[in-house]
Design goal:
Elements (H helix, E strand, L loop, with lengths): L9 H10 L5 E7 H10 L8 E5 L7 H12 L7 E4 L2 H10 L2 E4 L6
Parallel strand pairs: 1-2, 3-4
Helix pairs in contact: 3-4
């Protein structure tokens, strides 16, 4: 993680969304400890109300984590936008009742 940078404009976008009052969370297949280290390394913690990663090395449970988070948010269908970079992210969004936008410049 120390060998890569955030996407250009990422912090500006996060700051804009925060200023607009848009809640932001991370839902990732990355292991929780690695995800926490990344968020800390790039000093992004203040932007997110939740950082949810995998609890096992096989990265199972993204749908279950997403459903649990949706319940905590008390958000209905189409009140949440999942921004992802894999076809699995689109599947997760559908399963948890979120809208979805996939970007090309991500991991997948």
């Amino acid at each position: 993680m120390s060998e890569c940078d955030l996407q250009e404009g990422a912090v500006d976008a996060l700051e804009y969304l925060r200023a607009e009052g848009t809640g932001q969370s991370i839902l990732s297949a990355a292991h929780q400890s690695m995800l926490d280290a990344c968020v800390e390394y790039f000093e992004l913690g203040a932007f997110f109300m939740g950082v949810l990663g995998a609890r096992c090395n096989q990265a199972y449970g993204k749908v279950d984590e997403g459903r649990g988070w949706m319940e905590k948010l008390d958000s209905g269908p189409h009140e949440v936008l999942l921004v992802g970079d894999t076809t699995h992210d689109a599947e997760v969004a559908q399963a948890i009742g979120a809208d979805c936008v996939l970007i090309e410049s991500g991991h997948h």
